[in-house]
Amino acid sequence: MTQALARSEDRDGLPGKADGVSSQDGMRGAEKATSKPLNAFTIDVEEHFQVSAFEAAVPRSDWEGLGSRVEDNVSRLLDLLARHETTATFFTLGWVAERHPEMIRRIVGEGHELASHGYSHVRVNTQSAEAFREDVRKTKAILEDMSGVRVLGYRAASFSIGHSTPWALPILREEGHLYSSSTVPIAHDLYGDPDGQRFAYKPFPDDDFLEVPVTTLRLFGRNLPCGGGGFFRLLPYAYFRWGYGKIGRESGEPCIFYLHPWEIDPEQPRIAGAALKSRIRHYTNLGRTFNRLESLLRDFSWTSMARAFL
Predict the structure, then answer these.
(1) Each residue of 111-159: pLDDT tens digit?
(2) What is the rounded average pLDDT of the residues 23-52?
(3) What's domain 38-49+68-266+284-309's superfamily in CATH?
(4) In 3-state terms, what secondary structure has residue 271?
(5) Can you tell me the distance from the alpha carbon of 50 to that of 267, in angstroms, rounded to the nearest whole number?
C-alpha cells in the first residue's frame, strides 16, 4: 500500500480523507450481497462528438456550438445502476465536468467513484511530458474542487499510454493518482499493445500504484477484446457472458467493462464528414446497448475500480 493511501485509509480499507478532500471510496456499499466475484464497471464520460475517431471532422473550436447530450445519457445510466444496486467508476473529462457540475455532484452523491479522463480527450501519445503533466494536474484539481472528493484513478483518451510514453505512469503517480486504466493488450488500428500485460500489475517495484488493463479474452494464442466499448455493440452478448465467466474461473481476476454515455443514445446527431469506418464503429447497434447493459448487470456482479482493485 502506498504511503498516500495508507495516510488516507478509512475503516473500509479504501482511500478516505486526504489533503483537505473528503472521503471517496467511490461507493456507499450499495452493491447487492453476492458470492460472485466483483468486477469493475466503468464509464468514460464524454460527449458524442469528442471521440478520437471524429477528430478530423469535429475541430475542438466547434465543441461549444454543438448540442450537449452527455448529462441526459449519464442520468439514464445512473438510474440503471441504481435499479441494479450497483456502483461504478465514472472516468470524466474536465471539459465536461466544468459544464455539468450538477451531473458531477449527482455521480458522487449516489456513491459512485469519480475519476479522471483528462481534460479534453487529447491522446497521451500526442502530448509532451510537460503538457501531459499540466493536463493531469488541471483535470484532477477541477474534479476534486467540484466534487469535494479525492480523485484516485485515471484513464487515458483512447487508451493511449504505451511504449511511446514511458514518462506517463510516473507522472500520474507523482500527481497523486493511485491507479491508471489506460491500456488494452490487443491489436487495434487506433490503440493497443498485443504484448502488454492482461491483468493489473505494479509498474514500480517500490510502490503500489497500479496499471489495470481493460479485460481481454485469451483464445487461440491471441488476446481478443472483451472489455466493452464498440465491441460490446458489434459482437453478440453471449460472447461477453461466456468470456467473463471463463476469465473469472481461470484467472480469479476481476473483469473490467467500459462504455461511453453516447453508446446508449441512438438519437444522437450524426457527424458530417466522418470517415465511413468511424461511422460504422460509432453508430452500429446503439439501440441495443441499453438492454444489453441490463443483462450484463443482472448476469454479473459489479463495483467501482477503487473497490475492485484498491
Answers:
(1) 999 999 999 999 999 999 999 999 999 999 999 999 999 999 999 999 9
(2) 75
(3) Glycoside hydrolase/deacetylase (3.20.20.370)
(4) coil
(5) 16
Strand spans (E) along the chain: 38-45, 89-92, 113-116, 153-154, 179-180, 210-211, 216-219, 222-225, 256-259, 301-303
SS3 state of residue 37:
coil
Cα–Cα distance, 17 to 148 (Å, whole number): 10
Phi, psi (rounded to 5 degrees) for 90: -105, 100
73-122 residue pLDDT tens: 999 999 999 999 999 999 999 999 999 999 999 999 999 999 999 999 99
Type of residue numbered 229: G
- What's the CA gap between 27 and 242, in Å, rounded? 28
Q: Nearest-5° angle of CA 76, CA 82, CA 84? A: 110
pTM: 0.90
CA 247, CA 257: separation in Å to the nearest integer? Answer: 13
* Residues 275/245, Cβ–Cβ less than 8 Å: no
Evaluated on CA atoms 282, 294, 219, 200, the torsion sign reads positive
Q: What share of the chain is helix, strand, coil (3-state, %, to 5)?
A: 40, 15, 45
**Domain map of the chain by residue range?**
38-49+68-266+284-309
Cα 24–Cα 46–Cα 137 angle in degrees, nearest 5? 55
The x, y and z cell numbers of residue 28, run together, are: 456507499
